[in-house]
Amino acid sequence: MAQQRKARQPETRDSESPRGAAEVTATAIARLAGVGPAAVSNWRRRHPDFPKPVGGSVSSPTFDLAQVEAWLRAQGKLTQVPLRERAWQQVEQYPLGPSAALIRLGAAFTLGPDPNATDTPLLTTGLQLAEELGPAGAFGFLLGRHLGSVSRQYALTPAEPATLMAELGGPAAEVLDPACGFGGLLDAARRLNPDARLCGQDADPELAALADLRLTLALTGEGDDTSADNGPGPRRGWVDVRTGDALRADPFDRPPHAPGADVVLCHPPFNERNWGHDELAYDSRWEYGLPPRTESELAWVQHALAHSREDGTVVVLMPPAAASRRSGRRIRAELLRRGALRAVIALPVGAAPPYGIPLHLWVLRRPPVAGASAAPGVLLVETGSMAWPEARAAALDAWRAMVAGTGRADATAKTRTGADRPGVSHVVPVVDLLDEEVDLTPARHLPPTAVSGGALGLDELREQLATALRHASQLPATGAAVEAATGGGRASGWPSTTV
């Protein structure tokens, strides 16, 4: 999932810098020289001959790369620019932008270089990097550097929650992400299901193209330095990434009884108002109710369910307000009654953007054919106070314990024991959630943590209470003594006020 890009700041260009010359920021200079950004600031202040800015802005100036390299060599601070840095500089300074440069390189890595290409420096350094790291490794490195530079412009799904979502989804022959962005969730699913068909969609053509190239190159298994698939090998799985708004223009629309994906993973846009409420009012995907205009996330939940096979798993990253907003309570209630919603997991603050709130994971199963009994309980997990490794383990252990009960995550009184952990996880009967609010916030329904120490702890607590009661029994006598000492009136010299 990707948010709209921020407007680019206007640039100022020095007349000495020829248009099209590669430029670098102070941070890039620090990487070139192997120092921290503070060292570059010191050089600018202490050395009058340090290259002058040729572009960028006052707060983030850019410098001519050739001038910077010459100055660093003259000062003995640079012997040779690393190949990775030279390749990234070509990507960063590509006239059409870094995304276009990555698409250009990805196509060259996949199909071979175009003999008529005019962007020779980009292709030359890119292909040299591919020889060093492998095509998948080179593309993964450059894409990772690009993601780091645009992390504030897009709502990216970090690797840890993406992996957890794929693990909750489980084994799959086909995985779909209807708002795939750069393909992070599908890449996590690929690592667990290397032979799966990976289907994705995004409204931004550049993001869809980058996701397609990322997954296609990774499936070749050639030197992806972020995976265990090192070394050349035959391509596995299949990639099908398309461009378009999934809610308004669904390219993966299937006939009513056609099987869907085994697993659907989604990190949808949050708090959208213009998601198509009016034109989609009679859409067949709204089996659980028409999503209110202010509940775009519930539209994505139902879209994901509609594209899942019967009994397939859906995992959606949700804002915490979606679990309790009154405007969505009817759809939440229907998801519970039909047995579609199977778990709500509250993640630690900072797990994924927006980083200031504890996001939730909704785990759903598309109900089987009519007549099948709905699951009587929903797993609620609260990991907000945990570090990430502990939170991941708690969520997976609780989910797997519930699923192991019957093989279909149908929680019953016999299967709750393994999934229940006081203060962390609890299987709540559906009937207990179907009140006026239908609030699915895990913390509201978890039993308190058990008293440490067992029976011995209770004995100590009883003794402390008895001591407190003995002390309290002496209070009336003390009050009488004070009254007698003061003659039944206000003590002489004591300050007083009227209230």
Automatic annotation (TrEMBL):
Residues 1-23, 221-240, 480-499 are annotated as: Disordered. Residues 8-17 have a biased composition (Basic and acidic residues). GO terms for biological process: methylation. Residues 157-370 form the DNA methylase adenine-specific domain. Coiled coil: none annotated. The keyword Transferase applies. SUPFAM superfamilies: S-adenosyl-L-methionine-dependent methyltransferases (SSF53335). This is SAM-dependent methyltransferase. It comes from Streptacidiphilus pinicola.
